[in-house]
What we know:
Blueprint: E1 2-6, H1 10-19, E2 24-26, H2 29-34, H3 40-53, E3 57-61, H4 67-80, E4 84-89, H5 92-104, E5 108-113, H6 116-125, E6 129-132, H7 134-139, H8 144-158, E7 163-166, H9 172-181, E8 185-188, H10 190-195, H11 200-213
Parallel strand pairs: 1-2, 1-8, 2-3, 3-4, 4-5, 5-6, 6-7, 7-8
The chain binds SN-glycerol-3-phosphate (G3P).
Residues 6, 26, 28, 31, 133, 135-136, 167-168, 170, 187 line the site of SN-glycerol-3-phosphate.
Amino acid sequence: MKFFIDTANLAQIKEAQDLGVLDGVTTNPSLMAKEGIKGQDNILKHYVDICKIVDGDVSAEVISTDFEGMVREGEALAELHPQIVVKIPMIKDGIKAIKYFSEKGIRTNCTLIFSAGQALLAAKAGATYVSPFIGRLDDVSTDGMILIEDIRIIFDNYGYETQILAASVRHPIHIIQCAKLGADVATCPLSAILALLNHPLTDKGLAQFLADAKK
Ligand code: G3P
């Protein structure tokens, strides 16, 4: 399973990259705002800065909601850097834009996926990735993992190459469940990735080994 980091924070991206397990980055307008990145020029420069840190796909989201606007924005984003994947919302014009980009060889990530039907439609349109938001489903008392499982079955039934990019991952158990169900990618906060390192028996065992090594 590929690990992406879900942030626009350059220090966190670098920390994950330095760990040696990072396969890509996802961003969205909320994550860019959280880092205080404002103005078109600064936003575009920030995407390029991210691409320089990570060896892998970097999702950059359009903010237009009409077909022409998404095409205009997406083409400009795709021209920024070969690692850029254009992130498109799951709306009617978004599906048209994904189809347009897929015919032009521009890679896309269809975001805000909350149902298997939405994922199927995005795959049919040729999306490179679909992003089911599992944490936000959990927030409304719906098991986000059932969505991952359903999409995996559907994509495998028909051989869709669209990758399942589990998003809105909140904690390490989400990552483990995604891996068990065959999600292609989990995009996670740095804290969830680092939490995979921890086990009290590892700490206890290491302390014992180091103590015994002194004997
Ligand atoms: O990848 C989508 C993600 O940024 C949303 O996460 O925690 O705001 O639901 P969250």
